[in-house]
User: Fold this.
Amino acid sequence: MQSKDLFERSKKVAPGGVHSPVRSFAGMGREPVFFKKAQGPYLWSVEEQRYIDFCQSFGPLVLGHRDEEIEADVHEMISTAWSFGACEPYSLELAEWITSHIPWVEKLRFVSSGTEAVMSALRVARAATGKDKILKFEGCYHGHVDSLLVKAGSGLAGVAASSSAGISQRMAEATIVTPLDDDALLEKVFQDFGSELAAVIIEPLPANYGLLIQRKEFLQKVAALAKANNVLLIFDEVISGFRMALGGMAEILGITPDLVTYGKVIGGGFPVGCYGGRKDLLDLVAPNGPVYQAGTLSANPVGMRAGLRTLQKMKRLNGWSVLEERSAYFESQVKGAFADKGMTFIRQGSLFWFHYKTDAPLRRVDQIPPQQKENFNKVFLSGLKNGLYLAPNAYEVGFISMAHTNEILDQSASILKAALKEI
Assistant:
């Protein structure tokens, strides 16, 4: 069984041969690798090659693949029930754990993905405020919700244009788009549109179009302007929630959002998302209130058990401190090698990214150097050849897990250094 053959078969039955675009290895000049097994920090391909994995399913596997403790709970749950479509205690236990540890999440609702969580949070915001428009930031990704799959249009600041076919201009115009890290334009957008905005949504750590670490002062300004204009603040912490800290970026920044969306880590590797926040806002959701949202497979018991055990283990091991220590060690091992090639290795917590060197910290998508794709592809393909798997896209970040020991990080650093020598 070979990846090349499987990809040819897959292209006959799936668009582009994949079920999510980034998996296609587009622009890499080769077919994607098909994987058949995972454990800890490793992936095994159908060709039986082992890879050190820094994609970690794009973030949820904070403990690594198939952590033994979590796997035991998953097996127990699967032998008990797969799905109920009814009330059960497993989602209650996870909800109680989250709400008891995160003060700004007074109530929550589980869904099956981050996209669903964002879509539902926006619906709540519109219902609560009676207003329609949403403010988002160029370079922040919030799933494939129609109203947020938009980009800044030309002309008047703030006017949006669709970034996907199939989204009407009328839908796009319901969203205002502004650049990250631009205080003056942010103030102008609130001056022009503040009375029409239901919510402002932002990744407090933008990590879907590179790792665009924001100034705390800018994020504080976003929160202050939202409050001053009676606009709800939504933190999209689908990636950063329970990975950057127990309380995510909201805890690190000391900023309290009105609504927050989570995913990734809270499912322990299974498809889980949730939206939560102030009690008065969540009480607008059916059956308590007029905001309808439902999901047959929401709060799947397997994901609920896996997520709860993952969070409990991270707290027990003080996992966020462990991840910070190991990630800082990895950074120290590779940063100089990247600098020697005129590149910058940047990191926050257990997330990392690298790009061509810039004069100032890179905080906006329009600041990303044009060589990004070319340089990344060379590093990616060399690493792949030598048993290192990064997310197959120049604008995706890397994830370090608890399964990445210092020994494995040393091996990874050696592979990356060898890849850099080929540039």
The chain has a mean pLDDT of 94. The radius of gyration is 21 Å. DSSP finds 13 helices and 16 strands in the chain. The longest strand covers residues 133-138.
